[in-house]
């Protein structure tokens, strides 16, 4: 019996856009192993270097020794062991909210939020460069998806003014954009949402642990009382896995009862939850690590700009090195590997056409030695050769 293989619908993907899974070991570490080489890792979201810390490992081990290796079921059945309660109570203190809920991933959290709060008669306003999980959550909700130009409050107000006053409205935005490293104009957005009576949701995935003494951009700007829901992840700066939502008791109870990605998923295993709890405590104990990383980012970004590289509008630890064409980015990645650096090559459809880039992710555990490696590597290769 033979199996027929059907091509995906639509046009064939250009070869320079095709993806493959890299054979990488020690992917979260400061140095990883790739093709027999030990390379400085500028591709990981482990921004604070917590994933390999002694404290995080010990917290995971303690959780396994007490609770085993599996949660056993969804949290509404039998998977709600006491570590979950401790984690959500810590999240409430961390975010300054009445309630919090942990999901299996950040992706699942956004799907759960949007499929619960939005519906067919709802309008969801979303930044054009929001994460894919937000786009998919809006699609799943069957709400009308209203996309505004990236970080453009004027365009957002134009769109808000065109819609019926009585229509239920939600706005969701990344606070730090994952492929550009820039920040959402939250004060302007929240003023508009107040004017037009819009429920607001912030995705702090790439801001958590870094901005606002680790609590995110909303807290850095003292806007926590203006934001209805705060979403974030443990899988990036917090060095573990999972997603969370923090907000009012009413909204969190609604998610517990209606968010399908929460209700119908086996809960996170004890090792992961133990590490998440330890990560929150680490960030609160050393909130200066985020500012240290932002200082390092300013230094590296300025250096790259002096060499002629286009770093977009980045203001955070994520620095795009925009080369426009996919083939140029793939060549630059190979050249960096030869110079001792591993970086992500980001191409369409993850980013718009003619905006392919290297995605440089800096880390708080980098020292002067690693800074020199980065500077030497980018000085060796030429910005001009990738832009022609």
From TrEMBL:
GO biological process: biotin biosynthetic process
A Pfam family: Aminotran_1_2
Named cofactor requirement(s): pyridoxal 5'-phosphate
Chemical reaction(s) catalysed: 6-carboxyhexanoyl-[ACP] + L-alanine + H(+) = (8S)-8-amino-7-oxononanoate + holo-[ACP] + CO2
Source domain of life: Bacteria
InterPro entries registered for this protein in UniProt: Aminotrans_II_pyridoxalP_BS (IPR001917), Aminotransferase_I/II_large (IPR004839), AON_synthase_class-II (IPR050087), AONS_Archaea/Proteobacteria (IPR004723), PyrdxlP-dep_Trfase (IPR015424), PyrdxlP-dep_Trfase_major (IPR015421), PyrdxlP-dep_Trfase_small (IPR015422)
Keyword Acyltransferase applies: yes
N6-(pyridoxal phosphate)lysine sites (modified residues): 236
GO molecular function: 8-amino-7-oxononanoate synthase activity; pyridoxal phosphate binding
Domain Aminotransferase class I/classII large: 39-376
Nucleotide-binding among keywords: no
EC number: 2.3.1.47
Feature: compositional bias, Pro residues: 1-11
Functional summary from the UniProt entry: Catalyzes the decarboxylative condensation of pimeloyl-[acyl-carrier protein] and L-alanine to produce 8-amino-7-oxononanoate (AON), [acyl-carrier protein], and carbon dioxide.
Assembly with partners or alone: Homodimer.
NCBIfam families registered for this protein in UniProt: bioF
Protein name: 8-amino-7-ketopelargonate synthase
Lineage, uppermost ranks: Bacteria, Pseudomonadati, Thermodesulfobacteriota, Desulfovibrionia, Desulfovibrionales
């Amino acid at each position: 019996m033979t199996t027929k293989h059907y091509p995906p619908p639509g046009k064939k993907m250009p070869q320079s856009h095709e993806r493959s899974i890299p054979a990488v070991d020690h992917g979260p570490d400061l140095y990883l192993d790739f093709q027999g080489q030990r390379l400085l890792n500028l591709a990981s979201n482990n921004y604070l270097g917590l994933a390999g810390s002694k404290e995080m490992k010990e917290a995971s081990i303690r959780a396994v020794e007490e609770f085993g290796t599996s949660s056993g079921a969804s949290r509404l059945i039998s998977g709600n062991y006491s570590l979950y309660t401790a984690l959500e109570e810590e999240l409430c203190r961390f975010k300054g909210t009445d309630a919090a809920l942990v999901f299996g991933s950040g992706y699942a959290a956004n799907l759960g939020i949007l499929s619960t709060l939005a519906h067919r008669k709802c309008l969801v306003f979303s930044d054009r460069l929001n994460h894919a999980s937000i786009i998919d959550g809006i699609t799943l909700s069957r709400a009308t998806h209203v996309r505004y130009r990236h970080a453009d409050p004027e365009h957002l107000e134009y769109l808000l003014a065109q819609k019926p006053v009585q229509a239920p409205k939600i706005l969701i935005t990344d606070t730090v954009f994952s492929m550009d490293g820039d920040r959402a104009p939250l004060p302007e957005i929240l003023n508009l949402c107040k004017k037009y009576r819009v429920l607001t949701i912030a995705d702090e995935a790439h801001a958590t642990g870094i901005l606002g003494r680790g609590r995110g951009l909303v807290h850095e700007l003292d806007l926590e009382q203006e934001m209805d829901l705060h979403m974030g992840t443990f899988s990036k700066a917090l060095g573990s896995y999972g997603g969370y939502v923090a907000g009012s008791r009413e909204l969190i109870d609604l998610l517990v009862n209606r968010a399908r990605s929460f209700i119908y998923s086996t809960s996170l295993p004890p090792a992961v939850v133990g590490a998440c709890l330890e990560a929150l405590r680490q960030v609160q104990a050393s909130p200066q690590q985020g500012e240290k990383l932002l200082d390092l980012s300013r230094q590296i970004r300025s250096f790259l700009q002096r060499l002629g590289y286009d770093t977009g509008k980045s203001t955070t630890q994520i620095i795009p090195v925009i080369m426009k064409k996919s083939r140029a980015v793939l060549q630059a990645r190979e050249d960096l590997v030869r110079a001792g650096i591993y970086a992500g090559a980001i191409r369409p459809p993850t980013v718009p056409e003619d905006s392919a880039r290297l995605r440089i992710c800096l880390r708080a555990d980098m020292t002067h030695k690693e800074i020199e490696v980065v500077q030497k590597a980018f000085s060796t290769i030429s910005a001009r050769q990738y832009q022609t």
